[in-house]
Amino acid sequence: MALTHPSVSATANYEQLEFFGDAVVRLVVSEWLMETYPQETVGRYSALRSVLVSDRTLGKIAASYGFDRYLLIAPSTKIDLHKQIHRLGDVLESVLGALYLSTHTSELIRPWLDIHWLSISEVVLQDTALQNYKDALQELTQSQSKLLPTYQISQPITLTSEDDRFTAEVFLQGELLGTGKGRSKKAAEQEAAKEAFFKLRPQPPKVQED
Fold first, then answer.
1. Model confidence over 55-72: pLDDT tens digits?
2. Domain architecture of the chain: domains with CATH
3. How far out from the chain centre does Cα 197 lie?
4. Candidate list 93, 169, 189, 195, residue with the active-site label
5. H or E segment at 194?
6. 122 is an active site residue
7. Given the residues 18, 22, 90, 169, the one annotated as active site
8. Most CB within 10 Å of its CB: which of 19, 22, 62, 84?
9. Is 175 labeled as catalytic in the residue annotation?
């Protein structure tokens, strides 16, 4: 059932297990973060967790295990690469939910995730904004000017790519600080915030050579 798409069965599919598995994954990653990075702050735990349990991350983990080969899905179902990654993330959550229900512990779950989370988190921790540039930009502008950035979203009449579906502009006191594009409004805002964040972020002083 954990590998059965709703297109195959409207009742005996992975949706309920995926709903449960979503909560299981959040619990397990919280446990893993506290074990792996005991000195980190709650704020950084939250930022890291949001990356590690994202649809994109879970979908890539599922793809690395070849879940697409075992998913039962109706042949008529259209496959879009972006939706496929999201779907595989759902399937991973459903499988992990089923594993948790069989033991009521994380012993069968951690081996699927720990090694992936470690490599991903090491990269994310090198990012000053922990890949959440909207929050990072907001904190930066509040500390510098006590003001919050504002966003404007537009949607082109014609599309050259699904990745360009939305365009976001971020402003501070009427000044354009950054522009970004994305499949969703949220993704476009993150790209705009990233550009603005690196524009406003204080630069370390240059070391003068003798």
1. 889 999 999 999 999 999
2. 15-124 (1.10.1520.10), 133-200 (3.30.160.20)
3. 19
4. 93
5. helix 185-200
6. no
7. 22
8. 62
9. no
